[in-house]
Amino acid sequence: SFCPRRSSRACRALSRNSALDDWAAVRIQALVRRFLCRCRLQRKIRSEVDDFFHPSGPAKKTALSLFKISRKLLFIFKLPQDKERFEKLCRCILSSMEAESDPKVWYVSLALSKELTLLWIQQVKDVLWICCEFLKLLKPDILQDSKLVNLHLTMLVTFTDTSTWKILQGKGEALRHAMNHICANIMGHLNQKGFYSVLQILLTNGLARSQPAFSKGTLTAAFSLALRPVVAAHFSDNLLRSFLIHIMSVPAIMSHLAALTPERLAVMESQDLLRKFLLFLSREEQCRDVCVCLEGSHTLCLLGNLVYLGSLNEKVLQEEMGPFVSVLTHMLCYCQKYVSQKKSNLTHWHPVLGWFSQTVDYGLNESMPLLSKQLQHLWGAPMIRLLFSDVLSKKLLESQEAARQPPPASSPHSSLPVKSLFRRAFQKSTSVRNILKPIGGKRVDSAEVQKVCSICVLYQMALTTLTQIRLQILTGLTYLDDLLPKLWALICELGPQGGLKVFLECLNHHTEESKRLLAMLMLFCDCSRHLITILDDIEVYEEQVSFKLEELVTISSFLNSFVFKMIWDG
Questions:
Q1: Which of 378, 401, 399 is closest to 388 using CA atoms?
Q2: Which residue has the higher pLDDT, 25 or 22?
Q3: Where are the domains of the chain?
């Protein structure tokens, strides 16, 4: 009885295996047939598309026929085999938009069809996003690619704004409001998909080099596209953030705009964008968020663009000086955290920052000279005059007594060159203005002092962060002969008894206010040391550039006492 039972179990198992084999065979056949069917359909559709765009195809391509062939192409679209077909589709769509007085040809006319409106909008979104995908891959410095960049940018420019739509001319003007909503819908879709990231890649590929790879028209189109979502959203925080991170961080983009298409800068000025940027970034958490997203190299690029834009908009800087100084200080402070004094396994070389502990984008190296030129505006004479206007506007009192003193009688030893030099020097130093000495009298918490302290913190931060251009910064700060003596005059006026006691107290109180006051003294010392080392004897003793000899003696005495007490008190 055992053998028959065993035999029946084997038969049932064999039957089950046979059924599984049959199912597997059917499944494989179905998959193969589906694959072959799909291949046949794709070949058929591609053949239809090729016939449609062939010179022997329909001479008059209506909007409806263009819509239908687009749906078919998008259904089977695949790179790289459909690349040329898509280019022909884009050219055909743009050509239809240029047709004269024939609504049936205008591709955009399908937006007025109740049955096709939603399908048409979705098709436009799909087509434009494929254009974006191409823009990420194209190299603007290659001639053939630059032509395709222009093609895809033209598609995006055409269907994100209604200004060129002929269907809205004349009687069609009543439809403009509805069409603007459609454009806003399309731009919103592109933004969600990563439109600004695409523009950042494109602009960086074209501009992060010594000579831009873009023509005026290409750069105008790309930057106009970048501005449209921000303006359409009425400068919402979300889109301002995207614009700052992806567009304003492109190396020296403001300089390239000024050189190639200054009209775009005029548009930015008309929209008051610099003020909006500064007010957005003046909120510390938002500034930190932007810096963290960008990291050091690109934060420096954003800083350079803001400085350059500020140099072109002095009126805005005068009105928003506080936010401007605060924003630049925060950005430099973020970069400074990663600046290292020496080479190590964790550092990378940066042409402006020196040894840097974050990853450096070496693709930006070509644009570093332009970035440095942008940053130079921060310590250029116009910016120094603007930021230190309160200090520079003060007049140093002239000496009355010295003016009445008769010249000293000549001595037999006055012919000696060194003694003669010193004698003339001291005569001159007492005859022009009062010698500046620590006298006190100005409250350290006054608005004027706090404003100057903030500016000194900014420049002190620049000196310690931008290590490779430190000498440039010091040279710029000492360019104006009257800045240092007037800054010394302010230091002399601090506190009830003069600056020394105030600064000694700062050493014992590790507060933000103390650090800001010390930054003023440190900046003054750094600049004075730089100035004195580059002046020759005649400039120091006879011409007495910036300082009178008695003032140098006073400054030396002040600093000697300061250093002694600092060491003595530990």
A1: 378
A2: 25
A3: 30-193, 388-394+435-569
